[in-house]
Amino acid sequence: MKIRQKITLISSLIFGFIFLLSSIVIYIAFYESSKNIFFQELSRTAKISGMFYLERDELSQKGFEPIQNSFYNLSSDQEVSIFNENGNIAFNTKELKQDWSESIEKIKEEGELNFRDNDTYYHGLFYKDNQGDFVVLVKATNPLIQSQKKRLISILAISFCVAMIILIFLTYRLSKLAYKPVRNIIKQVNHLNLHKSPLQLSYKSSKDELEELFQAFNNLLNEIESSYEQQKNFVDFSSHELKTPLASIINQLEISLQRDRSKDEYRETSAVVLQDAQQLKSILESLLTLSNLNKNIQLEEHIRIDELIWEIIEKLAPTYSEEKFNVKLEISPDDFDLLQCKGNETLLYMALFNIIENAAKFSKYEVVMIKLCKVNYRLQLQVKDQGIGISDKDLKHINQPFYRGGNTASFQGNGLGMSIALKIFQLHQIQYSITSQPQKFTKIQLEFPQ
């Protein structure tokens, strides 16, 4: 069942239940009100009848005349019976056929009593007089109440049917109108194509929950489009990067097999092939590392960041010398706890090694500045080189695997190191920012979690 049909059905059932409940309340209220009015009329009849029969000897003709006129004007449908204190009939307008002794005793106890038998209504009145104690019993039917009840039931039934038809029609139309933006989005989603850009849904601003849903969906589509583009570029770049060393290996081997060569020539060819194979191995290891970063990794080790940096510098010293790195530790002994970080030491070493090595590699003969300081009660690490820099265009793609800047062609690398390092920082919830000016500097700033 579609949503708009559910809305129509549920709304109709709820309204139908409320209308039915209201109709029952109206019917009961009307019936009780009509019954009370009729019992009041019977009470009046009982009092007039008692006065007509029992007060005649105590009033003058003039004083008795209004009571007499009122008695004779009573409805002919009302039957009056008066019982003396012995329970015998002293007066009646119509002969009674059943025994009323039990009801008479109850009337004497209550003083006044209303009761009903099917469609016949009764009112009993205990009347005290100087002649004795009497009970006045008035009996009557009310055809008007019955006809009004039937008419009210008919009116409520017709109103219910008409209201339900109108409600179902209006609810269906309104739900269709309210669901129109959703149908429009569904239609757009069915025609989405990953190969066409931009991957976005268009909708009218409504300032409601639906707009929030569409915005969230567009944000998701942005991520999907970005991921798809990165995946596509990853495949293209990885194919290209893997193809280059493989082609070089094949080419070197084909040349060496064309004719017999000296040992020195074979040794030279083997060295080139080995270098290409190592490059291929490095690329595959980086790809494997990048792939493993998407899996669950334990981040429970306690790591000293300053010690990790000195290990990296010691590792790079044979290539660049220790004078290449200028390390400043601007943290007081009281704040040495900030140097502790919780995470995976191997991965964090790999990430920091990459950014420090890149700084040394791209700054050529200039010094690399490394600073550890306290900012907003958090540890901040700055790595700044004085090298070729990164253009704004390249900076936007720095986290993409295999992407290399336009000014890095003369430097060895495959474009995987930085993307892996940034991924590791994200995994450790380390905030990073990269600022650069071409031919001047590149600064990477890291803020470690508390």
From TrEMBL:
The keyword Membrane applies. Keywords: Coiled coil, Kinase, Membrane, Phosphoprotein, Transferase, Transmembrane, Transmembrane helix. It catalyses: ATP + protein L-histidine = ADP + protein N-phospho-L-histidine. Residues 237-450 form the Histidine kinase domain. It comes from the Bacteria. The chain crosses the membrane at residues 7-30, 152-172. It is found in: Membrane. The keyword Transcription regulation does not apply. Its EC number is 2.7.13.3. Residues 203-230 form a coiled coil. Pfam families: HATPase_c (PF02518), HisKA (PF00512). This is histidine kinase. The lineage of its organism: Bacteria, Pseudomonadati, Bacteroidota, Flavobacteriia, Flavobacteriales.
